[in-house]
């Protein structure tokens, strides 16, 4: 099953990933049904090593769930960036992925030859300690 994301939401994630470089940025995605992302809710990365991992405070997860719920939306995804690292889940990402049915998006950010930052975003379903790449469809 593909994951659908609004063009503006994806552009927003990649912009935040560039601004946060060389640190990992993170946040949540919301949609009206699972499998789609209409908007994002950036969160703080509270990891002690934000260059190589991300961690979202549990109260921010709860806050986001409630904020989406009051508007009839669902939490459908979690995004974070990988500065100078490919867009695939690390062992830590797999270990910490604990939201069932939610899609995990990873945006790789790296310097190109022009001195600017390029991004590549991929989506994964993470279940039972395994990551399965899912096609990201921009709508
Ligand atoms: Zn990661």
From TrEMBL:
Q: Where is the MPN domain?
A: 3-130
Instruction: Establish whether keyword Electron transport is in the entry.
Output: no
Q: Could you list this entry's UniProt keywords, alphabetically sorted.
A: Hydrolase, Metal-binding, Metalloprotease, Protease, Zinc
Q: Which InterPro entries match?
A: JAB_dom_prok, JAMM/MPN+_dom, MPN, VirAsm_ModProt
Alphabetically, the GO molecular function entries are: metalloexopeptidase activity; zinc ion binding
Biological processes annotated in GO? proteolysis
Claim: Nucleotide-binding is one of the keywords in the record: no
Q: What name does UniProt use for this protein?
A: M67 family metallopeptidase
Species annotation: Candidatus Chlorohelix allophototropha
What taxonomic classification does the UniProt entry list for its organism? Bacteria, Bacillati, Chloroflexota, Chloroflexia, Candidatus Chloroheliales
């Amino acid at each position: 099953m593909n994951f659908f994301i609004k063009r503006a939401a994806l552009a927003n994630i990649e912009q935040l990933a560039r601004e946060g470089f060389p640190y990992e940025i993170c946040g949540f995605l919301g949609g009206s049904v699972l499998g789609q992302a209409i908007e994002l809710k950036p969160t703080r990365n509270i990891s002690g090593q934000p260059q190589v991992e991300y961690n979202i405070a549990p109260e921010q997860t709860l806050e986001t769930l409630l904020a989406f719920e009051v508007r009839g939306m669902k939490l459908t995804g979690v995004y974070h960036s990988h500065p100078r690292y490919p867009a695939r889940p690390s062992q830590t990402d797999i270990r910490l992925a604990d939201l069932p049915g939610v899609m995990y998006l990873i945006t790789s950010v790296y310097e190109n030859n022009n001195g600017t930052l390029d991004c590549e975003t991929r989506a994964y379903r993470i279940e039972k300690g395994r990551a399965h790449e899912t096609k990201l469809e921009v709508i």
